[in-house]
Write a structure and sequence with these properties.
Layout lengths: L9 H25 L4 H16 L3 E3 L4 E3 L4 H8 L1 H19 L7 H23 L6 H26 L5 H33 L6 H15 L1
């Protein structure tokens, strides 16, 4: 999903940077006012885990993009949208600045994909699926898969808009690979979520604590 330097058009770079800066800036203001201090170490652990997971990637479209797990869904379900945005922003920024994984000039688009769109879509889908009483693991899988595909759609649109490749090639390639990556993301999210929620119950939303407790009771019955 990481887009490197030197391939996106100035308009795409500027537009995505403006959107990401606005959203992330509000996220930091939100954190200053509402983030509970006990959540910060746990968020740091999550950031470290996602950083390591994202380092395993492979090039797509002649290195115009890369495929890898995202992790935005796990962060969004456990902590909420704004904390997830800050977690993903930290991960993606460190990768760009210190490991050349994703371009610095393309940081705005990479943040838009992985720190804004992925958490927002996954959390929206997750909450929507609550209405039909699906198990938490099923909701997590569907939400994670959808978030990966949504982020890939944005990346493909940006590549097509910049003239790097045709829209058809961009969408077909990124959607194909990220549909498969999304399956892995969904499985990992569904497996890890119950353990993560039970290990930090005091930090998590009440609804998630209730879900985790119910599934734990079912498992012991």
């Amino acid at each position: 999903m990481h887009i490197p330097d030197g391939i996106l058009s100035p308009a795409v770079l500027a537009g995505s940077a403006l959107i990401s800066a606005t959203v992330v800036g509000y996220g930091f203001r939100w954190a200053k006012k509402k983030l509970e201090p006990p959540m910060i170490p746990t968020m740091g652990v999550m950031a470290a885990f996602l950083f390591a997971a994202q380092m395993i990637n492979f090039p797509l479209l002649g290195a115009a993009a890369s495929g890898h797990l995202l992790g935005g869904t796990l962060a969004a379900i456990l902590f909420g949208f704004w904390p997830a945005t800050l977690i993903m922003t930290t991960v993606v920024t460190i990768q760009a600045l210190f490991f050349q994984d994703g371009g610095i000039t393309a940081l705005g688009l990479n943040l838009l994909d992985m720190a804004v769109i992925a958490p927002a879509v996954s959390l929206g889908i997750y909450r929507l699926l609550e209405r039909i009483s699906l198990p938490t693991s099923v909701r997590a899988f569907i939400s994670a898969w959808t978030s990966v595909v949504a982020a890939a759609l944005m990346a493909a649109f940006a590549l097509g808009l910049s003239g790097v490749v045709s829209y058809g090639v961009a969408f077909s390639s990124l959607l194909l690979w990220h549909s498969l990556i999304g399956i892995g993301e969904g499985i990992i999210t569904a497996v890890i979520l119950p353990f993560a929620s039970r290990s930090s119950l005091q930090l998590l939303p009440q609804k998630l604590r209730i879900d985790a407790g119910k599934e734990s009771e079912v498992g012991h019955s």
